[in-house]
Amino acid sequence: MTAGRPTADEERHTDLVSDSARSGLPLSRQALLDRTRKAALWTAFALALVLLALDRYAAWAHRPGAESTRVVLYTTAWCGYCAALRQQFAAANIEFTEYDVEKSLSGQMGFWALRGRGVPVSVVGPDVIYGYREEALEASLAKLGHVTDLVTLGPPGGP
């Protein structure tokens, strides 16, 4: 210190000591906390990137394109409407792919990508139908060339 003024090194030391005094932690512990926070932030960032990648993959793999001709059902084992839909499609000789959203990772990802909130979710060609809606299903199936009357094939929980 010359003429009552601290040097640059003394000012830096005073700043570090005052930062340490403010937090009430020794310098080494403060540095450890800073390092831990930085590691946690990078971990959260990496996790967010992985989740974004999974979401984009699910959207690419499960959302139907404009020219799609596939029939896909997202169901559960305990759902009566799902069982009825399965039986009606089988009776009408409609080929379909089924994913159980509780047992299959692909099913869960597809359900997520389609923003499903309940089962069944049906993808008929380019159309996504939420719930058991016979008229919407029949219209979408007709666009694909399947002529069927789901009502006459039997209602859910029928006789």
Output the keywords.
159 residues; alpha+beta; Glutaredoxin; 2 domains; four-stranded mixed β-sheet; 52% helix; rod-shaped
Report what the structure shows:
The protein has 159 residues and is an alpha+beta fold. The chain has two domains: 8-56; 63-143, Glutaredoxin (3-Layer(aba) Sandwich), CATH 3.40.30. It contains five helices and four strands; from the N terminus they run ααβαβαββα. Strands 2-1-3-4 form a four-stranded mixed beta sheet, with helices on both faces. Strand 3 (121-124) and strand 4 form a beta hairpin. The longest helix has 36 residues, at 27-62. It is rod-shaped. The model has no long low-confidence stretch (mean pLDDT 85).
Q: In the CATH hierarchy, what is the architecture of the largest domain at level 2?
A: 3-Layer(aba) Sandwich
How does the helix and strand content classify structurally?
Answer: alpha+beta
Overall body shape: rod-shaped
Strand tally is: 4
Order of helices and strands: HHEHEHEEH
Q: Treating each run of at least 4 consecutive H or I residues as one helix, how many helices?
A: 5
Rounded to the nearest angstrom, the distance between the terminal CA atoms is 98 Å
Main sheet, how many strands, which sense, barrel?
Answer: 4 strands, mixed
Number of structural domains: 2
- CATH C-level class of the largest domain is Alpha Beta
Strand order of the largest sheet: 2-1-3-4
CATH topology of the largest domain: Glutaredoxin
Strand content: 5-15%
CATH superfamily of the largest domain: Glutaredoxin
Map the helices and strands:
Elements: H1 8-23, H2 27-62, E1 71-75, H3 80-91, E2 97-100, H4 105-113, E3 121-124, E4 127-130, H5 134-143
